[in-house]
Each structure stands twice: as C-alpha cells, then as structure tokens.
Specification:
about 220 residues; mainly alpha; 9 helices; globular
Length: about 220
Amino acid sequence: MALIPSFLVSHISETLVALRSYLNDDFSQTSLVERQKLAADVRKIGAGCAAAIAPMPLPFADIWAITTVQYMIVRAIGNIYGHKLDINATKEVLAVIGGGMLGQQICLQLFKWGLPGAGGIGGMAFVYAWTCGMSVAAETYFKSDGKATKEELKKAREQGMAEAKTRTKLSKNEGEIDPTSNMTTPDTLESRLGKLKVLFQEGLIDKDEYKRQKERLLNNI
C-alpha cells in the first residue's frame, strides 16, 4: 500500500476521536428517538469527514481512506442499536447495505479520472450524499436486527442521499460552513504519532502499516 499522507492520518484520527463515544458507550437503556438522534450525529460527522477527503491534494485516491470512514460509521451506528461489530462483521454489513466496494470504486474512479464533479464542491457534495445514503441504510439494517430487505435498504440509501443533497443545497444558499471546515491543520510530531496510535489501537490500520507510518514521521524530523 502507498504511504498515507500525514495530514490524512490526522484528519481520519480526529474523526475517530469525535466518534469514540458512539463506538464505545452503552446505549442499551437509550430510547429509540434518542438513538435516531445519535445516529444522525454519527452520519453528520462521518459524511463530513468523507466529503473533506474529496478536495484534498492527495497523490493517490487510496481505498483505505473511504473504507476507514465507512467502518467507523457502521460500527458506531451498530453500537448505538446494540450491535458490537469487529472488522469482519463490519465488512459483511457493508456488503449487505450496498455501501462497500461498489460505492468506493465509483468515488475513487471519479477522483482518478478527474471527471466533472469529481473535485471541489461538486466532489464534496457527491461523497457527502453517498456517505449519508450508506449511513441511513446502515441504520435501517440495525433497527431491523438485520432483517431489512434489499428493497428497503435501497429505499433507505436513496432517501438518505436525497436528504443530504437537499441539505447541501440549503447550506450553500444560506452560506453555512462547508463539511471541510474542520479539516486538519499542521500539528506537532507528538500529536501526529498519538493520532496514528489511535488508528492502530482501534484496528483501522494493521501493525505493519502503523510501523511504516511511524517510521516515516520520525524520519521527517
């Protein structure tokens, strides 16, 4: 795998920190209405993170970045609805809800080919809407304890994307801050190493990748 830019590692790890309570807290006594609000929070945070990746000056459009965001969103929403997922279970859920490899390939090809709407605000809106659609499908899946039909999941994806597109249009018209407003700024070596360690501890990068990234950071001192 190509080396992951340090600013992207920071961006992803900060999103993980923002989602940590959703990933780890116990929501067994939480009402359905409150769970829906929490899932909406996860959707907003995760989709914003994914959208912010679109205009980043990446030397590659690595599948790792979008996959990591997807894992965090699905695991967090699953936890909210009482489902503890490991990496393998998360992959299985992504395959079922339709937000996995196919969606990633569409995004990545847009990035690589530079097609209309692939970069800038157009690309951000596309990735934001697509990620929201996947998130709504994930919530539908967990709310039904995995019993939602393909038709129901498809309808949920389409509904989530439509609502996200409406929100982005309203935000643009009202002059609101865009999803990349919290993009990572340069930070200290200690901070970067700490964020990298968080990704490793959460299982979002393997031991070899952790060592490669750590060595690269230390060599750049």
